[in-house]
Amino acid sequence: MKEILDRVLTEEEEGGEIFRFNDLVFRLAGRTEGKIPHLHFNNRAGTRFGAIRLDTNSYFPHGGKYTDKLDKKENILFNTFMTKKTFEKVAEIWNQQHTDGNKLDPKQKPDYSTIIMPK
């Protein structure tokens, strides 16, 4: 029962799963996540947690938790999965959920071939 409740609470907090590959799940950051457009990723084991900004090609470490990065192969897969069409849909969902935050221009998809960690 705890696993089911944890999953439901996570899905409510997050904006929903965007895609998954290998052992990673990518979810749009939910309403409680502030005004900076980003998505979260984690592995099934719960040992990796990261965040990627949607308005630029950088990671978004925050909350002392989302500090992991994608390795080179994962970065390539992320860039492959985050198509123009996927980004447009993500931007649309972000803009609907975050009426008081930064809006995303669905036509301004960053180049995710390289994702940088801010200093």
- Euclidean distance between termini CA atoms: 41 Å
Secondary-structure element pattern, one letter each: HEEEEHH
Number of domain modules: 1
Biggest sheet strand order reads 1-2-3-4
Percent strand: 15-25%
Helical region count?
Answer: 3
Sketch the major β-sheet: 4 strands, antiparallel
The counted number of beta strands is 4
Sequence stretches where pLDDT stays below 50 over 5 or more residues: 1-12
Structural class: alpha+beta
* Helix content, binned percent: 25-40%
Radius of gyration: 14 Å
Notes on the protein architecture:
- The structure is a single chain.
- This protein has helices spanning 2-13, 72-81, 84-97; strands at residues 16-21, 24-28, 38-43, 49-53.
- 30% of the residues lie in helices and 18% in strands.
- It is globular.
- The chain is of the alpha+beta class and 119 residues long.
- The model is unreliable at 1-12 (pLDDT under 50).
- The longest helix has 14 residues, at 84-97.
- The protein has one domain.
- It has a 4-stranded antiparallel sheet.
Please sum up the structure shown.
The chain has 119 residues and is of the alpha+beta class.
Protein topology:
Blueprint: H1 2-13, E1 16-21, E2 24-28, E3 38-43, E4 49-53, H2 72-81, H3 84-97
Antiparallel strand pairs: 1-2, 2-3, 3-4
List keywords for this structure.
single chain, 119 residues, 4-stranded antiparallel beta sheet, 3 helices, 4 strands, 30% helix, globular, disordered N terminus
